[in-house]
Amino acid sequence: MSFIPRILRRNAVPRKRGAAAEELAASHLRGQGLKILDRNYRIRGGEIDLIARDGDTLVFIEVRLRSRQDFGGAAESITPAKCRRIILAAQHYLAANIRGHHPPCRFDCVLLDALSKGSMQWIRNAFDVD
Description:
globular, Trna Endonuclease, Chain: A, domain 1, disordered N terminus, 130 residues
C-alpha cells in the first residue's frame, strides 16, 4: 500500500464530485449549442471552470455544486469575491488567447444542488464586470 498524505485522501472525493459536476454542466451546455473551448483555466488568484463559445459570444462559466444546504445552496456560494476572481481570470484569458478586438463576453453560472441534471440551473449573464 502506498503512502498517501491524509490531506490528499480527504480532498479526493470533493475533487471527483467537482469534476463530475463540471462534466455534467459541459454536457448540458453542449446540448444547448455551446462549444466548450477550455476547462479549468487557472491563474494565480482565480480560476474559470469552463470557457465556451455561444455563437459569437465568449462565455466564462462557473460551475457550483452543493450537496448540503448547511451554508446555503449553490447560488449562495457565489460571493462578490468569487466573482472578482473569475473576472480576473477572464481578463488574463482574453489577454493571453485573443488577439485584437475581443468578442462579446458574458459570465454564466451552472448551479447544482445534487449531481443530476434535474437539479441543474443555468443562469446566463449571472454577473457583470463593474
